[in-house]
C-alpha cells in the first residue's frame, strides 16, 4: 500500500529535468555571487525570458539569509517541463517569516525584512515557505513561456486580413556610413526608394539627405543617433525629385577587422515599418490565480515591488537596487536633473560610497568632468580606455557601465546606471533592458521629485519667515551671531562658523563657532583659529573652501604618526582621538557665503558637513537667502552697538566720574535715567570742591528726556563748576547759567535747579547756603523725626531773562539729614494716585537714625513699589547726613 501511494505521488509531481545547487557564505558579496549563479544556470538551460524575475527574487531571498539571518544560504534550481523552481534555504529556522494571510503586513517601505516575500507574491507563479528542524526554505516557481525552443521573440498566428500591408516587393535600403557619417555603400533598393544612383551619393554625408526630426518630441538629432551603438526610429529622406519619403530605420554601429567604426542603416518605407521594427516588450500576463482575485499586474510594481515607497529617497533607492539585480551588477546609481537640465545630482546609489557621492553634482554634455551620455543610452565596455566618461565612477574600481536616461514627455529628468567591476560585462541588449525599466519608473520618479520640491519650497518659506522674525527681534551683535549659527545648525549644516570684518582694511575675525555635537566645538574652534580665514569676496553664492578638511585630515595624520612613534611628539598638539574626531566632523564639503550689507562685505558665513557628505543645491540656495537676511541684521546690530556706545560714552561724561568724599558729612546719590539705553537724561546731580573747606552741590531737572535734555544737562553741570570756582556766590552762579541757557535759542530748555554750597564745621555740624530755582524743595530730617522744607521756592531757569535770586542758610546738626530729589520721585504715579511732597515727607519721617545711603535706598524702594509700571521719568536722589557725635 505504501509503495502504491509513493508511486501515485511520483506520477503527479512534475519530472525534474535539470538541477543545479550551490551554497553561499554569510557575507555581503554572496548576494552578487548567487545572482550570477542563477543567471548562468538559467542561461545555460536556455530560458532567458525568466532570468530577470528569477535574479531579482533570488537576490532578495539570499539577502534575507546571509545579511538578516546571518547564516549560509543554500540555493537550488530545478527545471521541469513547464517551469523553473528556485529554493533558498537558511539555517535559522526559528526566525519568523510572516505568511501572506497574516494580519500583520509582510513588509513596509522602511523595513529591510519581508520585501523578498512581497516580490514573490508579485512576480512568481507560485511560492511558499517550508520549515524543517534545521532549515527554513523559501521557494518560488516561474512558468516557462509556451513557444518553440530557440525563438527569441514571436507573435501569435493571425488571419491574413490582420497582417500588416506592404508592397508586393518589399525594398530594404542598406546604407553604410564611415566614421564621419559619409556614405560608403548604397544598394539598389536605396536607389529605387530615393531615386539616387550610388555614384551620386557616395562620399556625401547622410545628413545632406535626411529630414530630421520626423518624430515629434524626439530630442536626439541624427548626428547623435548615428554615433549610438544601436538606434531605431523614424525620420525622412529627401529624394532626387525633392520630395521627402518617410522611412523607418534601424542603425547598428560596427567595426571592421582593423577596428575602424562604421554604421549600417536599414531603411524601409514608414508604412512598412513592421519589417524592421523590434517587437515591443509587454509585461507578462497575470496568472490565473491573480485573475481570479480580480488583480492586474502593474509593470511599475513588477519592477519596483509592491507596495512602492511613497517617498522619493525610498523610491530611488529601491530603483537602483532592482536595476543592479536585474543586470547582475556590482553597483548602480541614479541621478536627477536640475530644472534647467544642465546638471545631474546624485540621489541614490548602491555598491558605491554613497555618503561621499550623495547630492554631488555633475554638469551635462561633453567635456572633461562632465556627463556626456546623459541624454541617450550608452554602454562603456571599459572605463579604463575612456577615463572620466562617467565621473561618478572615478576611483571606484568599476570598469564597465551601462547608462540610460529617464525622460518624461521628451524632457530629461534623470539618468540610471549599472556598473560592474569587470570590463565588457554589458552590451546593447542590457541597455535596452535597462531603458525599458527606466521607462517604467520615470513618471513615478518625476512625480515624487515634484512633490519633494513642493515640500522643500514650503519648508524653506516657513524657515525664512521664522528666521527673519528672530533676526529682527534683536539689535545685539553677539545675539545676532548666535542666532545665525543656531538657525543653520543642524537644519542646513552640521557645523557653522561666522567670520566678521570690522572695516575694509581689517582681516576677517572668527567670531562664532557652532557644531551640532557640543563636544566638537572646542576642537573645531581650535582648528579654524589656526587657519587663514577665507577671502571676503563679495561675489554672491556659495563657494567651496577646502582648507578646513585638508587641515583636519593633516592634523589627524600627524596625530596617528606620533602615536606610532614615526613623527616627533608635539606637546601642544591635540590628542589623536580628538584630531580624528575633528577630522571626521569637518571632513566633508565646506562652503563660504559672503555677508554683504550696504554694498560692503561685513563677514562670511561658513557651513560644513561631516566626512564624505555634500550639500544639496536646494540647501545652498536656502542658505544664500538666509545669509542676505543675516547680513542686514548683523550690520544693523553693528550700527546700533556703535551708536549706543557713542551715546553712552557722551552720557557718562555728563555725570561725575565718582562720588566725592566730604570730610564730616555722609553723602550718597542714586540716579536712574528713563528710556532704553540711556545712562543720563534730563535729571543730573553734581558734587565738587570749590576751594579749601567748601564744596558745591547741585541737583537739577531739564525739561524733557533724551539727547536734547542731556545737552542742557552738560551745559548746566560744567557752567556750575566753572562759575563757582571763579568765586561767584549761589545767586550769581544761577543768574549767569540762566543767561547761558537762554543764549541757546530754540535749543534751550527750562531747568529746575537746587544749588548749594557746603561748609563742614569743626563742632560736627555743617552749614549750607542753598538756592532753589523752581526745583522740589529740599527736606530736612531732624533727630527727633520732624521734617521741614530747608528752602523757599524761587523762579526756574531758562524762562525769564532778569532773575532776582537769593540764597538761604541752613545748619545741619549732628544726626540731621538733607534730602534732595527731582520730580521723578515726587510725581511718581499709579492711576490717579501720586506720591507727591506729602508722601515723600511721610516717608522721610521713618528714616530717623539711618545713614545717608540707607535713606536714599529706602526712598528708591518706595518709589519703585508705588506703581507696578516702570518709571517713565528720570530720577535723582541726593542724601546728605551729618554723623552724630561719638
TrEMBL record:
<dbReference type="InterPro" id="IPR036890">
    <property type="entry name" value="HATPase_C_sf"/>
</dbReference>
<dbReference type="InterPro" id="IPR003594">
    <property type="entry name" value="HATPase_dom"/>
</dbReference>
<dbReference type="InterPro" id="IPR001932">
    <property type="entry name" value="PPM-type_phosphatase-like_dom"/>
</dbReference>
<dbReference type="InterPro" id="IPR052016">
    <property type="entry name" value="Bact_Sigma-Reg"/>
</dbReference>
<dbReference type="InterPro" id="IPR036457">
    <property type="entry name" value="PPM-type-like_dom_sf"/>
</dbReference>
<dbReference type="Pfam" id="PF13581">
    <property type="entry name" value="HATPase_c_2"/>
</dbReference>
<dbReference type="Pfam" id="PF13492">
    <property type="entry name" value="GAF_3"/>
</dbReference>
<dbReference type="InterPro" id="IPR000014">
    <property type="entry name" value="PAS"/>
</dbReference>
<dbReference type="InterPro" id="IPR003018">
    <property type="entry name" value="GAF"/>
</dbReference>
<protein>
    <submittedName>
        <fullName>SpoIIE family protein phosphatase</fullName>
    </submittedName>
</protein>
<feature type="domain" description="PAS">
    <location>
        <begin position="174"/>
        <end position="204"/>
    </location>
</feature>
<dbReference type="InterPro" id="IPR029016">
    <property type="entry name" value="GAF-like_dom_sf"/>
</dbReference>
<dbReference type="Pfam" id="PF13185">
    <property type="entry name" value="GAF_2"/>
</dbReference>
<dbReference type="InterPro" id="IPR013767">
    <property type="entry name" value="PAS_fold"/>
</dbReference>
<dbReference type="Pfam" id="PF07228">
    <property type="entry name" value="SpoIIE"/>
</dbReference>
<keyword id="KW-0378">Hydrolase</keyword>
<dbReference type="InterPro" id="IPR035965">
    <property type="entry name" value="PAS-like_dom_sf"/>
</dbReference>
<dbReference type="Pfam" id="PF00989">
    <property type="entry name" value="PAS"/>
</dbReference>
